[in-house]
Amino acid sequence: ELFTMFSNSVTNGGKTTLAEKLKNMLPNCDIISQDDFFKPESEVETDERGFKLYDVLDALYMDEMVTSIRNWMKSPASSGVVTEELQNTCDNLKNVYILIVEGFLLYNYEPLNEVWNRRYFLTLPYEECKRRRSTRVYQPADTPGYFDGHVWPMYLKYKNELEENASMQVDYLDGTKSQEELLSYVYSDIIQELNRLRE
């Protein structure tokens, strides 16, 4: 049985950390990260202000990402991800393979809309998001005004599109909560969903 979930987030919302912790707790769990599919800087468009437009789908090799997800779904066992100690304690989940896809721009991408069993979206208020972003080192580095001029507006646009899509079931999570609290909630939700699917 296959179970795919997606962890989406505003920049620095904590999705990668959450995904890694979930991987260690769930049986036969693998992660595909959207960050691995960024185009090289030379292929990313620059706007009239000189900002590199990284926070749009065109900055990513999305077709390659879709191929990776489809390949995993065709043959999850060949990914080699087996969590031995969990298999002993979760007998009813032995034949379940879980894929976590984590990134910042996925739910509005049509070719993947039918893939997800669960969708989570980590949110942060403006000040906290900007503070966290300022502590990270990016290649290429953020240019002055980049967060306010490109990153935050694109996040708001994307989030508004999601909220306006009535058919899209998304579980919005408060990224200011502790990692332990978020992990506990998402883990319990996934186990509940897995049990429901098996009924």
UniProtKB/TrEMBL annotation:
Q: Does the keyword Flavoprotein apply?
A: no
- Keyword flag Metal-binding: yes
- Any single GO CC term annotated in Swiss-Prot or TrEMBL for this entry: cytosol
Pathway(s) per entry? Cofactor biosynthesis; NAD(+) biosynthesis
- CDD domains linked to this entry: NRK1
- What would you give as a GO molecular function for this chain, any one? nicotinate riboside kinase activity
Q: Give start-end of the signal peptide.
A: none
Q: Which InterPro entries match?
A: P-loop_NTPase (IPR027417)
Q: Name one GO biological process term.
A: NAD+ metabolic process
Q: Could you tell me what this protein is called?
A: NRK1 kinase
The source organism is Promerops cafer
**Organism lineage:** Eukaryota, Metazoa, Chordata, Craniata, Vertebrata
